[in-house]
Every structure is written in structure tokens, then in C-alpha cells.
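Hey Z.,

So I finally got round to the 5'-deoxyadenosine thing we talked about over coffee. Here's the setup:
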Amino acid sequence: MHLPDYKEARTRDKRDYHRFDFSLDEELKNKYQGMKYYIKTYGCQMNEHDSEVIEALLELLGFIKTDHYLESDLIILNTCSIRENAHNKAFGMLGRIKHLKQEKPDLIVGICGCMAQEASVVEAILRDYKFVNFVVGTHNLHELPKVLDHSIQNETQEIEVYSREGDLIEEVPVVRANSYKAYVNIIYGCDKFCTYCIVPYTRGRERSRKKEDILKEVDQLIADGYQEITLLGQNVNAYGKDLYHDYNLGDLLEEIAFKNIPRIRFMTSHPWDFTDKMIEVIGKYPNIMPSIHLPVQSGSNRILKLMGRRYTRESYLELFHKIKKQIPRVSVSTDIIVGFPQEEEEDFLDTLRLVEECRYDNAFTFIFSQREGTPACRLEDNTTLEEKEERLQRLNTLVNTIFLENNQKLVGTSLEVMVEGISDKKTMYYGYSDTNKLINFSCDKELKPGDLVSVEITDAKTWSLDGRSI
Ligand code: 5AD
Ligand code: SF4
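And the result:
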């Protein structure tokens, strides 16, 4: 049994880590043939991609996927700890599973993801959720087959969570959710330690994958006919810093742009690590999508400092305007937290003013959520929840007005859209533009996911555009 510990998770030193290829014990292959698994995924794209790996690991063991948890033999919750509501959702699901397990005592239940890295969650599982068969942390996901098998064979509760990242495992199998767009991890972890954020504790230190491993994965995706790849990391802009002297995200993007792949995306970018070279490369290659997620979090210097964001309102705006100027047609989206401890009305107004200046194309807005063990948790907070909710409401009203105004300017223009699917009533296709706008459109021809079509925009809504293919 290995239990997580935040103190250990915090440490950052110059430990070397090694790269190993994944392998599975022969005796585990197909050992659970025919049993059904169900995965519930919470949180970000990183977790979605981890679930693709979990699926592949389970299928190597012989499990078959089901979309109905009531008919499964194994339920995996791939959890998220970024805010309290993600936490509550997973615990709510565990409550339902507890009842189910009374009817189906042989049901196997496993917890993976960020919540597995939290000591308080693991303590609660040991104390109150004894029916959970196993917990596997984010750093040793590749060990899931072994841990699951051990738990089933010995009828024990297995908790295998390492506080610190271990080696980098390559050649991990993956069952991709789509056949036309794919996620590719380029860097794991985060070293930024924004004071509100739990990610550096749950995902560990920044570790870049070797460029050769990334390029090999990209080449395979291209050979398999993928049209779009999204390079993933908590902070992709830090790519390469831990591995190379002179190779960063700009170089990686450029190398991939030379390949025969129509669409390259990347996320998330921390403003701190955004170099001129990256901006230049993104602007230069038509297959690097002009769409950047650039979280600002707050428009107030006082709050940015308390958040430990390492930039000021002024330096963020300078970067923002440079990006807008140098990357043609670029769309920028952001994340904003309201109600951070000690945020006054004047700080909040600074955020509104910044939003008015940046006129984002999309924004994910949150009320500050206390995460146990993070520095912001210890800050005095005298704003009521009602005030915070009211600020969120005002912010949402503003961003929504701006989204609609931005979209209205696109009516009459044409955009290239990658088809994702067809609506329930089979009347309209939908997909995303290069600038990451959701577009619903009509087309006389039959289209399939991954097709690229030119669409004339006929109508604008707050979160989407309507059009017809031309
Ligand atoms: N409370 C509220 N929002 C948070 N985020 C991260 N941690 C917290 C927290 N404790 C938001 C940030 C980040 C996004 C992924 O989630 O805006 O960019
Ligand atoms: Fe969290 Fe900040 Fe790292 Fe983003 S950059 S994952 S907000 S610590």
C-alpha cells in the first residue's frame, strides 16, 4: 500500500527520471475476458486522455466496454480535484455505487485520477468507502492492471498512490475516443504553484516527453488518417525546458507543422512561458490553428500577486495584443476566477475592464474554490458566497454579450469547418472552425467526421454560429 502525501508532492528537485516502455505480464492478458467495464470521466482533457489509456489497459485484460454502469462488472471513476463541485460529483457517484454494490457484491470499483492523489480522499476511502476495491494514482496509471488483478485475486482493498512522479512510461496503449481527432500529451505536471491550484500536487513536477516519442506518436496518427491533433499539457508552453537547452514548444509546433496533418492545436498556455518564437510559428503555419487558450484568472494586479500568477495585468495585455497583432484571425479564450480571497469590488471591476479590452472569444468562469493544502486556502476571505455569485453573474453577462457581438461580425464570412457529427434530427452537421467556433450547418452532400468543409455563416448565437456549406 502506498498513500499520498502533499508535503512530498510539493518537492521539486533535479531528480533524473527514466523512460521505460510499457509492458504487460503475459498472464494478465485476457484474464478477465468478457467482463464489462464502465468508466466515468470527470474534469479536463488530460483526464479524458487518461481514460483512453485506462480503456486500452482494461481491454488488454479482456474487459469489454459498456456505457451503462448498472450492467457493468467493473466501474472506474477517473476523478478531478480542481474545484469542490468535481469532488462532490465523484462522491455522489460513489454513494450510488455503494447501493449498487449491495445488490451486486461482486461489482469491482476503482478510483483513478487527481482525487486519488489527495490524502484526505484516500483517508475517506479507507474509513467510509471500504467497498472501493482499489485506488491508483496519476503517476502510476500504467500499474492499473497489476493493482486491479491483485485486489480481485486477494480480495483486498489496494491503494497504490505515489506522491511523487516516477519514470516516464512510453508505448502505453490507448483506445482513442475518435478516429479523426486525437490528444497527444507533450508535458506532464506543473511547476507554477498558483496559490489556488491543486494540480502541481496531483500531477507532479513538469516532465516533458522526448520529442522523438511525440513525433513518433504523431506520425502514427497521421498514418492512421487523423485530421487533427491536440498537444496537451497543464502548461504546454513550458515544453522542453526540463529536457533541452534549445528546443521548446515553438520548435515542436514547427516540426509537426511540416507534416501532413491539417490541424494542430495545443493547450493550455501559461502567459509566463509564451515566447516570441512561439507566436511567430503559430502565425506562420496554416495548419497550426489560430486559437489560443490564455488563462488570465484576474484583471487586478493585487489579486494576480496573491494568486502567484507571475505576471501583471500590463504584461498580460502586452502579450495578448502581440498575439492578436501577429497571428492573423486568432481567437483567444481564457479562464477567470472570481471571489478569490480578498478580492474587492475594485479588483473585480479591473477584471471586467480587462475583459472589455480583450473581448475574448470564449471564457471559462469560476467561483474560487478552496482546495485543501493550497496556500490560498489559508488566506482570510471575507466575501460572502452571495457576493461571489453576483460577481460571477455580472462577469458572465459581460462575456456572453461579447461572444455574441464577436460572432455577429462573422455573419457573411466563410470559415473552414471540420465535421464532428450530425444533429439528433439529422438535419444539420456540426463541427469547429479553425478558430474553435462551434458551427451548425446544412449541406446537401453526405459528410463524415473529420471532413473539412467551407461554410458560409448565416446567423450568430452566443455560443455557436449557423451556416451552410459552400
Ligand atoms: N477555484 C476555482 N477555479 C480554479 N481553477 C483552478 N483552481 C481553481 C480553484 N481552486 C480554474 C482556473 C484554471 C482552470 C483550469 O480552473 O481558472 O485555469
Ligand atoms: Fe494550476 Fe497554475 Fe499550473 Fe495552471 S499554471 S495547472 S492554474 S498551478
